Please model this.
Amino acid sequence: MGVIAKQSIYNVISIALAFMIGAANMLFLYPNFPGKDFQGLVVALLANSNLIQPFISFGVQHTLIKFFSDAKTKEDQDRLLWFVILFPLLILVIILPFYYVYYSDILDFLSSNNGTVLRFPFMIISIAIFTAYFEIFFSWLRVHFQSVFGNFLKEVYPRLLTFALLLLFAFKIIDLNKFINLLIWGYFIRLIIISIYSFYVYFPSFQWKLPTAWKPMLRYSFLIFLSGAAASFILDIDKAMIYKLTADENVAFYAVAVYMATVVEAPGRAMFQITSPLVAKAINEKDFNRLEVLLKKSSLNLLIICGLVFMIINLNLNDFYLIINQEGYASASSVVILVSIGKLFSMSMGCLNNIISNSKYYVYIFWFSISSAFLAVALNFSFIQSNGILGAAMATLIVIVFINFCKIILVAVFFKIHPYSRKSLAVVFFMFIIYLLVYWIPTLIHPIFSIASRTTLIIGLFSIPLFLLRWSSDLESLFHEVKSRLF
Model:
C-alpha cells in the first residue's frame, strides 16, 4: 500500500485542516454571528443542491474510474475522458428547462412550502452543476493517481470559502443575499481551478467517436446515477425532512451534531481517493488475491484510525458543547453518538464499497440504495414526528446498518471474502475498555484543557495494544516515516 500510504497522508492532512476550519464555522461563527436560523437555511440549501447534483453528473465520474484502467489504448482512454465531460451537457439541456418551469414544485417537495428556500432556486441548481462537474474532474485526477490537490479543493476549499464569507457577514460587510451570491461564485471558481489543473495533468486528444464500450458505460452510468441519487437522498433527506417537519433551528442543531459525527469517517475519505482506482484495476485484471489484501488492510487500518477518532469525539462531547455555549445545540449530543456509530461501521468495511461498484455486481448497489431510500423516508417521517432530531439520527443509523450488512453479505457470497479478522475483534474490544475507563473523567478547569488532556490519554492508552500486539504494519511504517521526517 505504498501508493495509498504516500498520498493518503497528504489527504488526511487536507481533511484534518478542512475539519478544523469547518469546526470553526459550525461551532463558533454560525452560532455566534448569523445565528441558528441562518445556519439552518444554508445547510438546507446545500442539502437540496446535493439532492439534485446526481441528476446532472449521471454517475459518469464513477464510470470514469471503473472503465479507465480497462481501456486498452490511449485512444480509448481519451474518448472516455471526453465522454464524461460532454455527456452531462446533454443532461443539462434536458434538466434546465424542466427545472426552470417546475423549480417551485421541486423545492416545495424537498423543503415544504417554506418561502425562504424558494427564494434561492438559482443558488441550488448552480451549485449542483458546479459540484457535479467538480466530481468529474476529481475522478479524472484520481485515475491518474493525482488526488492530493483535488482532495484539497474538495475538502478544504468550501470550508475556507464559508469561513471567509461568515467573517464578512460578522463584520456586516455583506448580507444574506450577497452571502449566497458569493457562495455560488466560490463554487464556480473551484470548478475552474480543478478543470485547469486536470487538463494540466493530462490533456486528451479530442476524439469524435464514442468509446468502444459506450453501451456498457451508459448502462453502468444509468444504474450508478440511480444509486447515487438514492445515496444522496439518504444522506440529505434527514436535514430536508427536519426542515419540513420541525422548526428551522433544529436543522442547525442536527447539522452541527452530524458534522462532529462525520469527523469519524475523515480518514476513510482520504484513503478511498486512492483505493478506488486500485480496486478497479485489480478487478479488471482479475487479481482477486490483491483485492482481498486491499479489503483486509483497508478495513483494519480504518477501524483503528476511525475508532480512535470515534473515541476522541464522543468522550469529549460534553466539552465540545461547552465551547459552543449556545442554547439548544447540546440537545443533539445523542445524535452525535448514534450517527458516529454508523459512520464507524461504514469505515470498518474498508474498500468494500469500491469492490462492489467496480465489479459486475454493481447493479446490486442500485437495489440496496433504492430500498434504503424508501426505508429512510419512512423511518425519518415516523421517527422525526415522535422523537425530533434524535429520531432522524435513529433512522440514519438503522439505514446505515441495513445497507452495509447487505453489502457485506453480497461480497461474502460472490467474492468469498469479507473485511474482518481476529485483529478487528481485538480493536473493538480495546476500544470498549478504553471508552469505559475514560468516560468517567469529568471536565477539568476549562473545556479546552479537558479535551486536550482526555485526547492525550485516549491516544496513549490506544497506542499500547496497537504497537504491542502489532495490529497494523502499515500504520507502524507510516508512524516511523513521519517520525523520521519530523526528527
Summary: The chain has one domain: 2-486. DSSP finds 19 helices and no strands in the chain.
